[in-house]
Amino acid sequence: MEYRQLGESSVKASVITFGAWAIGGWMWGGADRNDAIKAIKASYDEGVTSIDTAPAYGQGLSEEIVAEAIQDIPRDKVQLLTKFGLRWDVKEGEFFFKSKDNAGNDIDVYKLASRESVIKECEDCLRRLKTDYIDLFQIHWADGSTPVSETMEALLRLQEQGKIRAAGVCNYSVDLMKEAANTISLASDQVPYSMLLRDIEKDLVPYALEHKKSIIAYSPLQRGLLTGKIKPGYQFNEGDTREGNRFYTEENIRRTNTFLETLKPLAASKNASLAQLVLRWTIEQPGITIALAGARNAEQAVQNAKAAAVQLSKEELTFISSQVDALTTA
Length: 330
Known about the structure:
The chain is α/β, with parallel strands linked by helices. It is built from ten helices and 13 strands. It is 36% helix and 19% strand.
């Protein structure tokens, strides 16, 4: 496994980090708790020391599962990345969307990152994760109802108190990153990035490189589409929001699978799966520090972790990128 520093912070994370979105059941169709715990443990055994979670993933369930999975691992041997700023237990802030809780009841989710809310959420995260500090605490989505400076000041206080080691953001634009930088030194911005979704290359990547900020890529496999396992006619589980998403139309699934066929010979020559090849390409891209990869079971977790061992030459990376360019510009 390879480990990289998050921005200019003291936190180092595994280049393949366990993404704990799906294990909370949130917008992904659910996962078995025991399988999820085994997946996290299997990841750790393969060198994946970093886990990215959030309160919103199952209204705290994902964090609780993470805590159970790592209870026998020395705390300083894992990096816990979690978030704040999406509240389902209040009706204030900026309304975000309607969802369902784990019992199937309708709930409203609000973006809220006021000083009081940030501090409360930190305490709640610490309790659910059964720890006394968080390695990277990230705002989940920008809250238009709260000044950026207020949110960042709260993070600065938490950092000074030793409750968080580093502060990060998710889904922030360059302008928001610049505004936050007036108050605190951010370690990272967690954003969607994949072979199929590369818009951050225009502005965020240059900014991150210039200012020594890390980019944490989420959905690098485009939620399974780039594994080659999703074929036309694929049936999604109930509650899985991929169904109906623009990336999962029949036409786009066909186009993506045709593209993946061009990569299969290279993957085979490396004794790697398509997913492993895609993950390795992702963490080789300029500005991308780590990639999040979720897993529902131990086998998937091990396969994701092994992506870090795939070696790609400059020529091979150029070939893959040329195929990606052909797909995304078609």
